Amino acid sequence: MEKCFDVVGIGNAIVDVLVQADDRFLEDHDLTKGTMALVDEHQAERLYASVGPGLETSGGSAANTLAGVAQLGGRAGFIGRVRDDQLGGIFAHDIRSVGARFETPAATEGPSTARCLILVTPDAQRTMCTYLGASVGLDPADLDLEMVAQAKVLYLEGYLWDSDEAKAAFIAAAEVARAHGGEVALSLSDAFCVERHRDSFQELVDGHVDILFANEMEITALYKANSFAEAADQVRGRCKVAALTRSEQGSLILNGSGTHQVEPYRLGPLVDTTGAGDLYAAGFLHAYTQGQEIAACGRLGSLCAGQVVTQLGPRPQGSLRELVAQHLG
User: pTM of the predicted model, to two decimals?
Assistant: First the structure.
């Protein structure tokens, strides 16, 4: 059966606020560089008031990936909860403007739309303070199961695993996708997220996931491994494909008995690593759903990640199609 969508994603619907900051600011606010910390609405407002001007843009890990798929020319859809407020309107406009379908009804009561303050230090590391707000209220009733059934790949964001309702939505969506001949992809999202949910993540990978995305810290945390090589050995064979990213060392892709080393693309000075993993997944999944071989999927993922780290913000500011034509055409 011909599918209407290449990739449909489920994740946190967040508006990112990107701000350049120094190490002293992180120290003053007891923030650990390079990590993601969850904050409540009061903390979010206090931190926002303490920083300089920021760049507001729709974000969220899975949403960034789906926006990238759409920018590459793929047929993309996104499911996530916002509130009927100003930030909710910004999120909906931005993701639709790149060509992704987003029709989850906005909540009319409860917490406000989620936002993430991303502090970018001069070394291009990003430290995230996230208020999850309305996004964690996602539950099975929010799912557009017709959209899920029409997806070649259902892409799930590990950050949502903190909510029991979202867990139930994940499993329900994965079962529908599989029942209609689709595949399920998961991003582990964050090493601290993995630490909180290691056992259930392992069960999810073993029982529901065809394609796993993880960086070196995340995959090592998932299996409590002593090294990346040990973690790679642990994950091999547990899912159809494991795409493991390693920053400046590129990525390692495992499928069956095959091992594919993919080199990184260095397209300019490193500015901001926000969104690198998200855009890697976008490129990989776009190539994958177009039937390309695994190494080519990795190269497109690497190219998209290499572009986004040369700018401020998690969504490409230039044309990804032109980038592909220039480097892979």
Answer: 0.90
